[in-house]
Write a structure and sequence with these properties.
Layout: H1 8-38, H2 48-78, H3 86-92, H4 97-125, H5 132-154, H6 165-201, H7 211-236, H8 241-276, H9 283-296
Helix pairs in contact: 1-2, 1-8, 2-3, 2-4, 2-8, 4-5, 4-6, 4-8, 5-6, 6-7, 7-8
Length: about 325
Amino acid sequence: MAASGIPLDAGTLMSTVLEGILYGFSILLFIGTIWSLTHKQRIRDINRPIAVVAILLCMLSTAHIIVDIVRVEYAFVRYRSTYPGGPSAFLADVSQQTYVLKHAFYVLQTLLADGVVIYRCYTVWQSIWIIILPSMLWCSVAVTGVIGLYCAAQSGSDSGDIYAQVLANWVTAFFSLTIATNLLSSVLLVYRIWSIESNASTARATKGTMMPIVRVLVDTAILYSVVLFIALICFVCTNNGEVVVLDMIMPIVSIAFYMVLIRIAIARKNRLYSGISMPRRTTSEAGQESSRQNAMKPLQVHISQLNDGTPGFGKGNEDQLSPYPAEPV
């Protein structure tokens, strides 16, 4: 099927350049993420699962852009004069190993990012029933992605067109299920954190620190969903703009993940500093107030929070006491 819009060779060059720019920005955020996870932390306090996910996202983005560069070199230098039809025909051939490999990296990154969001939903809800539908959608994304890659690898060079009927159906299903999985998981996560923060804000005098995280989650979910929706529309319309948007998704996924982690780290540090900078009373004042309280109440229980106060985002400082003052019960 003939594609419309920007020529495929020009679109590939544009997508590689834009992906390189976004990739550089994602590397800066990756460095900031690792610093926020490890700065002034003991080794056993580092959130290893989140650190591993951040490293894997960086590795997948790096591998994807390397394959893109190799693919451009093959199309415009090595096989420019020898491949039938020139660079555009080479880039349109989905049976090429470089094509299958780069999209395999994309499928893996999509599954990893969506899996993290689903895990966060389970953590904040503490119910397996909440994530049944998102998990089913995630499995559907994996199935359609694998079958799409298989169809691309098995297609011949003559029929190797991404807009071919069989392959196009699986690609459309993959995009649609990815959008549904991301939106549903993000809505469940944001709603739960917002409800927890709303209930907690009525029972404490200090200002909550969760709403900035909610805003970042909403922004990243909207950004990711909009880009996926644009890619889906371009693909359904057989427009080569899909090539440009799809290559940009790889660093965008990493950027969205890093933004959430950095914002959590900032909120945690601000909460810690606000607790440390609370005005301290003299020993005599504390003793007088303690005497008055003991006269009024025979017993006072102080409860220390042992988590980092950020539901759904792993364990970072479990053995450190919460910076919030304990409340009498």
